[in-house]
Amino acid sequence: MNNFSYTKAGDIGQAIDLTNNNTGNKIVAGGTNILDLLKYFVTEAETVVDINRIEGLNGLTEHTEGGVRLGALMTNADTAYHPVIEQKYPLLSKAILAGASAQIRNMATNGGNLLQKTRCYYFYDPVTACNKRVPGSGCSAKEGYNRIHAILGHNENCIAVFPSDMCVALAALDAIVQISGPEGDREIQFADFHRLPGDTPEIDNNLKQGEIITGITLPAETFSEHYSYLKLRDRSSYSFALVSVATAFTLENDLIKEVRIALGGVSHKPWRVKEAEQFLTGKAPSEENFALAADIILQGASGFQHNEFKIGLAKKAIIRNAAMALHPESQRPGAKPSL
Ligand SMILES: Cc1cc2nc3c(=O)[nH]c(=O)nc-3n(C[C@H](O)[C@H](O)[C@H](O)COP(=O)(O)OP(=O)(O)OC[C@H]3O[C@@H](n4cnc5c(N)ncnc54)[C@H](O)[C@@H]3O)c2cc1C
Ligand code: SF4
Description:
Blueprint: E1 5-8, H1 12-20, E2 25-28, H2 34-39, E3 47-50, E4 60-62, E5 68-71, H3 76-80, H4 83-88, H5 90-97, H6 102-107, H7 110-115, H8 166-172, E6 176-181, E7 184-189, E8 212-218, E9 226-232, E10 243-252, E11 255-264, E12 271-272, H9 274-280, H10 287-297, H11 309-326
Parallel strand pairs: 1-3, 2-3
Antiparallel strand pairs: 4-5, 5-8, 6-7, 6-8, 9-10, 10-11, 11-12
Helix pairs in contact: 5-8, 9-10, 10-11
Bound molecules: flavin-adenine dinucleotide (FAD) and iron/sulfur cluster.
The site of iron/sulfur cluster has 14 residues, from loops.
């Protein structure tokens, strides 16, 4: 870790000024990711800017017209266990609780969760080539150990995946990210927040220099009747997803009225394919239909030496999670859901 100064931003304007005027100044919220990046020399800081004292970035606000706003500094634990989230947005609660550990969720903030870095081993190892850490240096994962890597949306520059669980549910729920920056306030639709690697794999999202996430808005549609988050991983806790699926739908006359399916652990951003959701709309929630939707979602999927298995795993996960969403009570341990 390099030597750095530490300062507490008193308000949002100060945090924006400090980070906008100097790219060496880094925001810290819960610190569960940025401090590791500093410790492993993946990144350096001139000044670490602590935003935890800024007022108005915490807590949950219910909108009168439906929907809620989650503060950027609200912790993952407070969000997952908030009665409004548990009752109205159980998909989000379930996805958050599938991530990390109780201790980390107590520290991790909602804003930080959106901005966490990939868990690609080579990214955290400064002696290896990594285009995300050092642009133009190459990608060690392509020919290396790539078991946890992408099967969708990757290119020759980077095959890393975005590791968040929370963000898979936020993608399915059509959340909106609220931002303040040097040019004022703006919002980004969740689908447009994270990026594919393209020619700039070092850029994970569309936040601009000096911009701060202030909150996340969840729309009025809560999908609290039919939802499920399925996370498949090497260990049953404290492990990132190999493949995860957030599924939510509403039914009318036993047919699918509206459906959302988002995948995690498979790409550089949460993966959602609108054509698959359109295909399912108006159809019966049957295994056959979800299998066909899975084929649409996984169109163009390709793996590497150690992660080809993820393609078949993702298809099975999509079908299984649809059954779980149809019968959320089946998610209790030991239950065997079927469509
Ligand atoms: C051992 C371990 C296991 C984990 N397992 C999982 C898992 O299974 N699933 C999962 O989803 N996550 C997992 N995580 C990741 C964890 O959820 C993230 O580290 C956490 O959400 C980051 O939030 P934070 O507040 O600590 O962010 P910080 O570390 O404080 O910041 C992260 C990044 O966001 C920036 N930042 C933070 N807040 C803002 C803001 N409001 N505006 C602008 N920039 C900001 C920081 O500058 C930094 O670049 C794990 C982490 C660890 C250490
Ligand atoms: S996959 Fe991306 S993060 Fe991993 S080594 Fe390659 S460029 Fe770096």
